[in-house]
Amino acid sequence: MITTRLSNLALQISGSRGLRMNFLEENISWDLFCETVFGEIGNCPRELEEIGKRIAKNCKGLPLSVIVIGGLLAKSEKTQLYWKHIAENLSSVVNLDDNARCLRILYLSYQELPIHLKPCFLYMGVFPEDSKTCFLRLRKLWAAEGFLKPISGKCLEEVAEEYLKDLIDRNLVIVRLLGSRGTVSLCSMHDLLRDLCLREAKNEKFLFSLELEQGTAIRRHNVVRQRSSKEEYDLTEVLHPAQLARSLSCDFQEALPLASFRLLRVLKQIYAEDLHYITTKSWYQIEDIFKLVNLRQTIDAPPEIWKMHQLRHVYIFTLRLPDPPTATGDEFALPNLLEMSIIKNFKWCEAVIKRIPNIKHLYIFYDDSSSLHYSLENLGYLHKLESLTCYFSCRVRRSYLVESLSVLHSLKKLTLWCCYLQWEDITRNIGSLPHLQVLKLNHGSTIGPTWETVDGLFCCLRFLEITYIDDMEQWTVAESCHFPRLNSLCLEELHKLKKIPSSFGDIQTLELIKLEMCSDSVVISAKEIAEQQEEFGNSDFRVEVYVEPNSEFKSLTKHNFRVFTRR
């Protein structure tokens, strides 16, 4: 299905078969307005009703205008004085055409934003039209840019969540996907709001999109360059006008002349297939965030990375990190570092642990068995670590990993690949983690045919994913209290597993079982669990099954048991 506001385009694509959507009638606009401002009940106070109806009428039946102006009023004072102020502003746009009127209404909502939210809103223009933006990535960029203002008792990540929620409540940002912990995972922006965003960002000299054929000599907050054709050009010459940029987002193949960017604070990403090494000078000047993606080679970081005291996030696929230079004091410490990914074949000696005391997110990768001991037991001293991903493609002493995992009491998310742990290790050492909410057991993470859980463990686990475990056959969960808070269970490519334990039908918090390419008996057991949950009145529960096109299970689809064709 194609939707468009351009009637000529609709005629070209569909001829007479297109469906023309009418504007909202006044009473429907009013109902939508009330629901947006006052919630589902939608009761407008009598003293505001006349002004409110005038505001809704001036939106001329445009749904986006109604919900955006409604979002503004929902977050503002509900007084006659303020509503009259908004109504007077809207009355000046009544005679404009639909698009111009809508943009003016959206602009009014932008004007009324609190000052701390304006740069966060404008920054959304960095991302391509119709793209779904990862909030974790957006949060890091907001922090690196300095948009997030400290709030007593809250870290910057929590502040970012509050800012995003405020933008969502104002209907300026759309939630596209919730993550495994119930927080926003993907978000986006309506194309008209993005047009407004880019226009205002350009007017305020906040953001500039740099194409190959043009440049600017004006100081810019950010420089963005989209992919273009493969014509010949001199990259240094093209980027010369942007040398005063504080932030650079780019997606071209060539290595950047980073030494030219004297004020650069944020390098968002580089797509470079032939990049092997970043020069010392390039590393040293980027103080807040460094992000390289889509690399085919391993990057060797220079020792000077340990001097980047303001560094918060490192995401490079993959990074060989040097040992920190021997020194006393904090000369080679990274007290602000929150994330490192993906760190290759690194030895976690005590000196390293002391220099990254506040790390929260870590992804480690090992493919070299020449040294069997990487001091993995010291990971247990990372007392603020919340998310850990471990990937092994060689034989190392995994017993040290198990030892460290059992004492990571701050851990909320754990992802394992090819660790070949015993199921008992998963139950006793990982199940005892008091704050663990997300557990992902991927290919080779465990060995053995039987997993038997016990009471009193996995107390906070909300999301469990098990994929590509070749020899898992039996799963015993005697009571629903073994996973008392589980919300989602995702199983993929478990061809030998006989069934999902029937006790999952008694878990009151369970909302989703997702199956992909599992045995028929597992699918049947999931259907039985769906029937149990329905009997208990759990209307939020559903099963999603992904099967081959010729599967017989497609005929079993019902409201809480959905079968989809696997792509």
Estimated share of beta-strand residues: 15-25%
Radius of gyration: 27 Å
The CATH topology of the domain at 21-111 is given as: Helicase, Ruva Protein, domain 3
Largest sheet: 17 strands, parallel
What this model shows, in words?
By secondary structure, the chain is an alpha/beta fold. Among the domains are: 21-111, Helicase, Ruva Protein, domain 3; 118-196, Arc Repressor Mutant, subunit A. 29% of the residues lie in helices and 18% in strands. It contains 16 helices and 24 strands. The strands form four sheets. The protein has a 17-stranded parallel sheet that branches. A three-stranded antiparallel sheet has the order 1-3-2. Strand 13, helix 14 and strand 14 form a beta-alpha-beta unit. Helix 2 (26-38) runs parallel beside helix 4 (63-74). Keywords: ATP-binding, Leucine-rich repeat, Membrane, Nucleotide-binding, Plant defense, Repeat. It comes from Sesamum angustifolium. It is found in: Membrane. Belongs to the disease resistance NB-LRR family. This is Late blight resistance proteinR1B-16.
